[in-house]
Specification:
CATH architecture of the largest domain in chain A: 3-Layer(aba) Sandwich
CATH superfamily of chain B: Dinitrogenase iron-molybdenum cofactor biosynthesis domain
Number of domains of chain A: 2
Radius of gyration of chain A: 22 Å
Bound molecules: iron/sulfur cluster
CATH topology of chain B: Nucleotidyltransferase, domain 5
Strand order of the largest sheet of chain B: 3-2-1-4-5
Largest sheet of chain B: 5 strands, mixed
Number of helices of chain B: 3
Number of domains of chain B: 1
CATH topology of the largest domain in chain A: Rossmann fold
Distance between the termini of chain B: 5 Å
Order of helices and strands of chain B: EEEHEHEH
Structural class of chain B: alpha/beta
CATH class of the largest domain in chain A: Alpha Beta
Structural class of chain A: alpha/beta
CATH superfamily of the largest domain in chain A: P-loop containing nucleotide triphosphate hydrolases
Oligomer: heterodimer
Amino acid sequence: MKIAVASGKGGTGKTLVAANLAEVVSRTLDTTLVDCDVEEPNLHLFFGGPATSAEVCVPVPVFDLEVCDRCGKCAGFCRYGAITVLQDRILFFSDLCHSCGGCMLICPKGAIREEPVRIGQINISHPSSLLTLVSGILDEGQPHATPVIRSAKEHSMSSCLVIFDAAPGTACPVVETVEGCDACILVTESTPFGLHDLRLAAEVADCLGVPAGVVINRSDGRDRKTTEFCTTHELPVMMTIPFDRKIASVQNRGELISRRSPEWQGRFSGLFEQCRDLAGVRR
Amino acid sequence: MKICITAQGPHLEAHHEERFGRAPYFILIDRETGAFEAIENSFASGAGGVGPKAAQVLIAHKTNVLISGAVGENARQVLSAAGITMITYRAGGTVRDALEWYLRNNPGTPEGQ
Ligand code: SF4
Ligand code: SF4
């Protein structure tokens, strides 16, 4: 089973939910936790242990100007504007290139070959006997997160349970993460902004056909607007985490509330059961 | 000499558009004859790389001067490699206003252009 943890914006407590859920279920089930927030991965802060790593590379075109006759077909083909053919040279912008390989196929002269370029890495560690942590890390300044997320997903396919911590927001990286999951946990806060972002995130899950449920974090007890939204959109509220300084301070120390408190351990087990039910809805 | 002015519509009275890659139209004016031609920017609503794509359109039309407000870094590189002079104009108004402003500041036609 694959569970994605997502939220319409950052700072809602997505990491808290993903880390505690993985901590609790990995006591009995073979679990892989995948950090897909590749621009700012942080799950490793909660799970120690030595990591092995693998590079993530993407192919980019290299032009042989001796062979090239400046016909311009490659530039005309590239819909991302990564190639401009001038009389005396070819300008290539690697930050615009999506590594689709099309220019190489289209070139009538065979003047283009592909070379791998590193854009990030995957770290893999085993914090406990049944838990594997896979972290995708995008190199500073690299514009395309998706290949790193894809690679992180590929490194996580052997466990029976995989939990994906998505990047905040609703852009391509989130779609890449949530797509193909059996259930999606949407983490939100009960503020007007939180509700707006929840709506966007719920739409993404809905478009991808992934059944979703909601966790309300930092609740001050006034969640009526959020719960109403969930009722009308048939999103079950699976868990409500109260606003509590103690929870925040545990988290800030790199600790997990479910490690320290049997009560929270039970609540996160309950969350997992509800995710199972959600996943069953699709079948 | 060919002058390109970014525009919101396909004629000289259209509003000048400050953005380059996302400009809806490029108005090409022949300085010597005064003839003009409007080119629709089919990349204006593209997802990415609109700057270099738009710059390629200008190169294909043998443009010498571009009058626009904001040219992105990638487009700037393409335009300067192609020898196209970039002039920043942000005073608003119409394409004709931008053209007259340019002609006032650049009187006379340089030899050989
Ligand atoms: S690989 Fe694709 S995106 Fe990259 S330059 Fe070639 S055509 Fe453009
Ligand atoms: S398609 Fe091939 S031959 Fe034509 S300009 Fe591009 S690299 Fe050169």
